[in-house]
Amino acid sequence: MTDGSSYQEAVAAGMLPSEESHRALLQSIVDVARAIFGAKASSIFLLDDATDELVFEAVSGEGEGDLIGMRIPSSTGIAGWVLVTGQPIVIDDLQQDPRFARQAAERTGYVPQGLMAVPLSNGDTILGVLQVLDRSKDRAFSLGEIDLLIMFANQAAIGLDLLQTARRARAVAEQGDGGAAVVGRIAALLENAEDNEAGQRLLEALEAVLRSR
Amino acid sequence: MSERMMPAWSLTAEAAGSIGIPAEWPDRVTRDWAIGGATGEGVDVCILDSGVDGDHALVGGLKSAVVVRLDDEVTTIEPDTIGDVCGHGTACAGIIRSLAPACRIHSVRVLGEGNTGSADLILGGLRHAIEQRFGVINLSLSTTKRKFAELLHELADDAYFGGTVLVASAHNMPVESYPWRFSSVISVGSHEGDDSFEWYANPNPPVEFFARGVDLDVAWFGGSTLRATGNSFAAPHIAGLSALVLSKHPGLTPFQLKSILYLTASNAGGSK
Question: Are B234 and B243 in contact (CB under 8 A)?
Fold first, then answer.
């Protein structure tokens, strides 16, 4: 962490919106997805590369409030299949599958009858999975609905990408011990301080010293 | 596959008269000629997916089942005793069985071992399947990882020139993914019809064919069935149809088979 761009990133990290703001973006996406499809629930999973698991990052509807942070295997079940294969899928009448029903009920307390699932990708990286559970049956399913789901997936992927970038940058700023981390922490303190006049003067003095070298 | 008559790096004047092609083609290729009375008998179809529940009534047994694992960055092939970790591979097998009831179905499971390294598992599984010289391999999956594109491309070409038909579901998302975009595979998207024998040739590739993929009843694990939609269900329709063609006309190359699917497509007068 010695090059200029790292300092800039660290400063940016110190001034980033809070994790709550990013979560609010994801929450808004699942809320709207649920409303558009008239669904009982919608959720976003983030792939945790370190543990190779899918983590509930946002939930709207059934399970809201309970599931955030819950982890499931990354390559089994429908979400795992979508993550690994990169293919969207729509399934109805899931309750016909006793194994699925039991496993899902044990883990989440809620058993959907149908679900739509689509991968969330940024460039060539799959970041997670967006699911819509028990969409309204008022209208017949069409390919147009998959297209709509994919549009939401693009939004959700941007949201997830922002969240991950912010977390990484903040981890550097909060935990690093290099110069960039210190600058990041100073930026955060200045950003959050109610009265930073003294700090501002000190920084201007530091800038003058550095320029005069 | 019939033995190649000669290594064709070049063609001498003497050899030109004897370079026969072992297929009798009608003046007009019709569906009746292509698949009429065919059952898929004698054709090996491989499903590279989440595994297959061979005991499911709609699958009707497996000829073989293996799982691909990754040990220290080396893929290994072992007998699969788990079956299906999702349900999807069983769904694909059921679709293929419904179209080509007498074909032999093989499962190569590349899911269930974690997402990390999953592209390596897909590559390892595909390499294994191509080495087995199966007639048809169904790939209802894709990878967006650019670094695997070149290796996948080489494997797809190996299959194409080795006489194995790769049928891959197209990605209906605005990202680059593989191997469905390669011209050496048969790529498939969905139409909204409900006839499994309705398929369309796309005049505007890279998606080359559209087959049934919306609101269909499929086999799922635990002996159940459910209603499903996705390009991943359209691919096995073309895989099943390919098995039918190959059972009636053994020895066709992937190029010839793709041409027959094109000539007999519903929008090419094929259903007449």
Answer: no
Q: Report yes or no on A44 lying in a domain.
A: yes
- The CA-atom distances, in angstroms, between B33 and each of A23, B135, B245, B260, B261 are 59, 19, 9, 10, 12
Closest-CA residue in chain A for B147?
Answer: A124
Do A156 and A133 reside in the same domain of the chain?
Answer: yes
Give the tens place of pLDDT for each residue, B204-257: 999 999 999 999 999 998 888 999 999 999 999 999 999 999 999 999 999 999
How far is C-alpha B20 from the geometric centre of its chain's CA atoms?
28
Query: Which residues, at least 6 apart from B25, have a Cβ–Cβ distance to it below 8 Å?
Result: none
Beta carbons of B175 and A99 less than 8 Å apart? no
Same domain, A133 and A36: yes
Gap from B246 CA to chain A (nearest CA, Å): 27
- Domain region containing A125: 19-161
**A167 found inside a domain:** no
Assess if residue A127 is contained within a domain.
yes
Determine contact, residues B84/B127, Cβ cutoff 8 Å: no
- Contact: B228, A92; criterion CB under 8 Å: yes
Read off φ and ψ for residue A66, nearest 5 degrees: -100, -30
Whole-prediction pTM: 0.87
How many of the other CB atoms lie within 10 Å of CB of A158?
A: 15
Distance from CA of A186 to the nearest CA of B (A): 37
Closest CA to A185 of A173, A177, A176: A173
The tokens for A126 are 């799959």
Structure-block tokens of residue A118: 């689509």
Decide if A48 is inside a domain: yes
CATH number of the structural domain spanning residue A27: 3.30.450.40
- Provide mean pLDDT across the span A4-31: 75
User: Are A140 and A85 found together in one domain?
Assistant: yes
CB nearest B142 (choices: A87, A92, A118): A87
pLDDT of residue B4: 47
Based on the domain organization, do A152 and A177 belong to the same domain? Answer: no
Q: Architecture of domain B34-268 in CATH?
A: 3-Layer(aba) Sandwich (3.40)
Domain boundaries, chain B: 34-268
Are A43 and A95 within one domain?
yes
Measure B124 CA to nearest chain A CA, in Å: 15
Token readout for B164 is: 């194995």
Interchain pair A141, B169: CB under 8 A: no
